[in-house]
Amino acid sequence: MLFVSLIIGIAVCYVLPTAGVLILARGRKGTWKAFAMGAAAFVVSQVLVRIPILQMVLPGFGWFAVMQLYPWRYGLFLGLTAGIAEETGRWIAVRCFLKGKDTMEHGLAFGLGHGGIEAMLLVGPNMVAGLVMVLVGQESLFPPDGLGVLVAGLERVFAMAFHVGASLLVMYGVRQKKALRYWSLAVALHTVLDAAVVILPGVFGAGVLGMEIWAAAGAAVTLALGILCYRRQAG
């Protein structure tokens, strides 16, 4: 089961976003650029800015260590900083580098780039390493079991769906010259979704199932709102 689960997980992390942009790129100029800008927005906002600050700067402050003892405060802090960093990254990328490329297809590609590169950098490598271990007969060195890998892959599907929805909201806001309103909405949704990673288990004792249900619901709401904005405009 572990072998099959790893194949599925790798496909989710690498094949799903790539196949998605290939489909969107047919007959639509600028789609690959939107995909690349989405990926760049994540790398800059998270990998180069937020994560180094969280790991190398803030641990030196006493208030940060104390805050980690309180799930509500710590969860909301992590969720809010993730929302501000990533949604601001989206806004800058759309506003400065995708002028005139703001259709729903471009927004979908942007979101796939953002969520796809996150999966490729943060989750995919571990799955590839696990597959190599299985192929050489060293699967005992790979901690997660088959079910755990499937859950991780499913979580990436939800995360990509969220990033697509949030990208549509931010892009729609720039398109309609209401950037602050839709940026704020995206930040709020991002905060609520990410804060739950700490709050649900820390405060309510939620397990994996509860976490995944929350992630699925948050992704569905965000994606639906993003699509609805464009559909309403088209109507």
Per DSSP E runs of 2 or more residues, the count of β-strands stands at 0
Write down the overall mean pLDDT: 96
Number of helices: 9
| Major sheet details | none
What pattern of helices and strands is seen along the backbone? HHHHHHHHH
Note the beta-strand portion: under 5%
Low-pLDDT residue spans: none
Shape annotation = globular
Radius of gyration: 18 Å
Q: What share of residues is helical?
A: over 70%
How would you classify the helix and strand content by structural class?
Answer: mainly alpha
Cα distance spanning the termini: 47 Å
Task: Please give a structural write-up.
- It is a single chain.
- The chain starts with a helix and ends with a helix.
- The mean pLDDT is 96.
- It has helices at 2-24, 31-57, 62-67, 71-97, 104-122, 124-135, 146-175, 179-204, 208-234.
- The chain is globular and about 50 Å long.
- Helix content is 84%, strand content 0%.
- The protein is mainly α.
- The protein contains nine helices and no strands.
Describe the secondary structure blueprint for this structure.
Blueprint: H1 2-24, H2 31-57, H3 62-67, H4 71-97, H5 104-122, H6 124-135, H7 146-175, H8 179-204, H9 208-234
Helix pairs in contact: 1-5, 1-6, 1-7, 2-4, 2-5, 4-7, 4-8, 5-7, 7-8, 7-9, 8-9
